[in-house]
Amino acid sequence: MYEIPNDFSLLPLKYRNDITQSNQGIRRMAKWKNQLEIFRSLRRELSANRESLAGKLRFARSVIIASDVASQFYCEKKVEMKYLHGEVETEEKTIGSAAHEKLEEDAVNIEREDLWKKIYGGEPVLAVEMFILARYRDIVLGGMPDSILFQAGMPLIIFEFKFSQRQIAYLSHHIQSGTYGVILEKMGFDTSRLFYAVVTANPRTKGKRAFREEVMAAVIKNGPKEAVLKLKDATVHLNKFQLSKIEDNLNWAIEFWKQKRKPTLTTNPNKCCKCEYQIQCRNLAKI
Description:
The protein is α+β, with helices and mostly antiparallel strands and 287 residues long. The chain has one domain. 46% of the residues lie in helices and 18% in strands. The protein has helices at 13-22, 28-48, 50-53, 66-85, 91-104, 112-119, 171-186, 209-222, 243-257, 269-273, 278-281; strands spanning 2-3, 64-65, 125-128, 132-136, 139-143, 147-151, 154-163, 195-201, 227-230, 234-240. A seven-stranded mixed sheet has the order 1-3-6-7-8-10-9, with helices on both faces. Helix 4 (66-85) crosses helix 7 (171-186) and helix 7 (171-186) packs across helix 9.
């Protein structure tokens, strides 16, 4: 799904012109077709070899999901409990799910090939919950960012919305967005100008298009530089994506999925006290 931001015209001219000029002479049509075929080929390979791949990763996974990688930095044991005992619905998850559903309401359903064409076209495109997938060393990473702003085939900003009363961007939020950046780079996108925006927002903003436009306008006004932007009901944590900043943490997380080590438990009793897997885990008694 995608939408074209109404206020993209606010983007500084130097930002738009540099992108346009840097892509002059590039045969974008051939590039998007090649990228799309690689993506499709990887999906076919995963589907055909699901059984043989099942034993390589923990929980018979064939793909490591970015949101799971992020959750490992909250509590890795909780990730294990989710796969062993199933997802347990909580008030926080319900709020988050409802908010993300609202984010999709104004988007337009589109075929993947058409989306790729739009991405490499001349107009800016905001791809909403676009499934991305790529090889990273000897494993496959996948995920679905809330939205990605593209222009002329370049991903400019990854937006991740976190609906909570606390407007703090935790390490896990940065890891999730950074992992999306890694996937985009490994898919063949030019990430040299990629930023990611972790938007920590009050739950009352969910479903409000005006709020999303306010976030977009603030990011565009700020321009391509790191910043913490304070809005009425949200804080936007804007960071430059750099592969070197995410690799060590990502490689540590992958060791868990490769079954090279046991899950690392949180040492924060507050996390345990509100965890939906208290009974199964019993970590609180050990802290």
